[in-house]
## 1
Amino acid sequence: MSTIERFEEPVYVIRPFLPPLEEFCEGLKEIWDNHWLTNNGPVVQRFGRELSNYFETDNICLFTNGTLALQIGLQGMGISGEVITTPFTFVATTHALFWNKIRPVFVDIEPDFYTLDPEKVEAAITPWTTAILAVHVFGHACKVNILADIARRHNLKLIYDAAHAFGVRIGSRSIAHFGDMSMFSFHATKLYHSLEGGMLAFQDSGLKSVFDYLKNFGFASEVEVVMPGTNAKMNETQALMGSMVLGYVDKLIERRQRVTEIYRERLDGVPGIKLPPALPAEVRYNYAYMPIEVDEKQFGMSRNRLHEELKTYNIYTRRYFYPLVCDYSCYRSVSVKDPLTVARKVASRILTLPIYYDLPLDDVRRICDIIIALGSKEHDRQGSKLVAEA
Ligand code: T4K
């Protein structure tokens, strides 16, 4: 263990990709020249067209962040009553429901990819259910066909929190084309970002004007406000960054794939470390996160201890997503009927490892070696303790 050195600089779970500064400064000149900073300026409009091309649909709408996008999306679609959703997500998924006075009905996830378990979804439908809000967590595509079938049979809207799923494709189509609506986050911590930002992609083109009103105070003209909207507009600087990062996104995904391969090669077979299985062949993955599960008994130490021990090596992993959303104090009063057996187990074991574009591949190997050594050291320690006790 002593031979593996601590990282001199902190290694965080992510590090945002930034285009060359000169490129960004060059782009800023246009904004300076325009003296147009927000409120659907020319850079936002151009960025919208670029994203339409990327996602192969005109039915998109840009926002200042993903949370407001989802909140407004739910409101614009008129979702109410109960919505079946996952507790294994970032808290913003549930917050968006609550801001719309919608009751979340938490059901379990499936153990391989941590997405909503369709069987549990179907069992939780009541006369008050209006929609399913599923999350492509870590960029893992949900079981889109099965969920679509359930939604169709029960006349429910199918909405995806696709915050992690930029660049994911299923077969020949972008993941944005599945379900009635999908929300993408362009937050700095995402593989693709616009500093902060969010986007809705939707099937019903009639929703476009509703979302546009809702994100801009409901203004239809200088003298007409048609609905009580809010302010959730993307600004020109966000759009500039988003536009630039879009030019690199294939490279970013490619590089993350390489990082993931090294993690998988190195950690596969390590006792007590579980990696997600390969995704179905028709899914083009984006390598958004690098989740592992830690089995305390087999690995030798708990997930929480590994998380702490890694900090002593200057490695800052994250326990995405622990605690489950329903266990946060603000949601503890929500009645949860499903025992959430899988979600609870996963939340107690999950650890997301550093993954980002400029993470040197040797650093990835070193992170793996440190994890492996920590587990073996603990096994040795426990072994000696057992021998001593005997
Ligand atoms: N739905 C889902 C499923 C989501 O995951 C999210 C957001 C949303 C909805 C909402 O979308 P947005 O409204 O955010 O667009 C982070 C992000 O803030 C959040 O966007 C993201 N999910 C969530 C999974 O992760 P934190 O609280 O973990 O972030 P923070 O500040 O601790 O950053 C994580 C690490 O990243 C830090 O340890 C250091 C590094 N970092 C962070 C920032 C902001 C940098 O190196 N540079 C930076 O600029 O929530």
## 2
Amino acid sequence: MVLQGLRRLEYRGYDSAGIAVVAEGELSSAKKAGKLANLEKVLADRPLPAATVGIGHTRWATHGGPTDRNAHPHVSTGGDVAVVHNGIIENFASLRAECEAAGIEFSSDTDTEVAAHLLTAAYADAPEGEGRLAEAMRAICRRLEGAFTLVATHAAEPDTLVAARRSSPLVVGVGETADGTAEYFLGSDVAAFIGHTRNALELGQDQIVQIDRTAGVTVTDFAGAAVEPTAYTVDWDAAAAEKGGYDWFMLKEIAEQPKAIADTLLGRLGDHGNLILDEVRLSDQELRDIDKIFVVSCGTSFHAGLIAKYAIEHWTRIPVEVEVASEFRYRDPVLDRSTLVIVISQSGETMDTLMALRHAKEQKARVLAICNANGSTIPRESDAVLYTHAGPEIAVASTKAFLSQIVACYLVGLFLAQVRGMKYEDEVAAIVEDLRKLPDAVAQVLTGMDEVRALGRSLADADTVLFLGRHVGFPVALEGALKLKELAYIHAEGFAAGELKHGPIAVIDQGTPVVVIVPSPHSRESVHGKVVSNIQEVRARGARTIVIAEEGDEDVVPYADHLIRVPRTPTLLAPVVTTVPLQVLACEIATTRGLDVDQPRNLAKSVTVE
Ligand code: M6R
């Protein structure tokens, strides 16, 4: 059961794995560097005893390389306590020195191991009887600095599991076996136990949960005060997290994009072309008071933010700044009560984004989260939330979550324009109509991907691929380059096409593939002609041009070595359709290169450390 849970969390990215069980008063464990298959081999040669309490972990190396000895669980010197840990214990060096001064020999290079030794000592000091392991966990958590989720088991407590959470994800699952016996789960996300139960409990910051065979679930804060956890039901099931006949989760998720967009729009578009965002818990007055917006996020979610800027500024005339979360709080941004900070995160657990949101709240700004994972930390700590309903995204590379994020940003922008009276009702209604057409437009793009795949196969040996775009096509170029880098390990860069002559054009050589995202020739603010010139400029210098252009755009035909057509879509909404061929292209190139599309090397799905 534990291995199965780890399998379901594989998508988060890892480089070693391990497991520990308590049976008949003894703790047994196994761990191995590499994929779960390596651990399974170890377990086949040396099976662990049957048990009803077990913990498991997949580790993404931070302190210490991805080796057998650094894999979790970490077991205390006497072999009584096993600990698994996500996050970083920032004061581990001083704690380790303290343990070493007390004669403890460490058997790994991790920050985690200190927790196993400290817990053993704290357990010895805790009063005997019920709740002793939880009391020990509280004692050590009060000393730990940084972000962590810890789960611990003790040989003397065969009916108990204890876990702690600070700024790192942890959810509890409450289920029932076939014969009606209660069963409990802990996981970094619900995917770990979704095959067993959809009933979950949310834990807050700085909380300890004890799971006991008879007493069930008890939650306290680090001081020991009782806390009532919030129960919720997961609105997707195990089938939603299966590959459903596709070779890769990513392919399935690309195919699910029309539905992801439709579900994100569902219930939010009114019959009269108006927007209904009741769930955004900011009053109309608060929305009217906003005089500046920051969009803060990481990776692909950052690209969604860049697209949001064009739409929100155009529709609302409120200035929008977009920033990567890891930079935001360190440069002391100017924020106050009338600033709206929109944080975008698929997982809702990205540490950089979470820290940026906390900084924004400290500065009294209002925070609105756009998030895909229900019950995750970022929406919980935000003033308001708009969920993208993309369903579980398992592949490390974000696809359907990205398109849903863009759509959610459109909803926010248009809603602000509606509430602030920046657009007439019929103008809002016209854009709403365009939004409604997006799922079909994406479905149409998906039906014509055979040529893109063939193109992908022909690009498998490329050393470098460049992506060019202007206006909203620029963030799409950045996203196309990111997808290619993370999936195919090919050097790729996205440029604003207008910047070409200011430097980047120097890298173009004979045969360099250059992907160009061409804006609609019909839009009022069109820079179409300029981009067509850019295609000619790179082609004249030997580039192999791959052109993504609207149906009917004949201007690009003479200069396109490869032409990928997308349906006509209003300029601001075009990224939703133009991104799709770039996802398929990157996926095909990676597959042709024989790479693991769903779990690219060195990457984690959710980056829960800074
Ligand atoms: O869960 P989040 O949206 O906060 O994640 C942000 C980035 O880590 C994520 O988008 C990452 O860049 C993906 N690997 C992109 O495919």
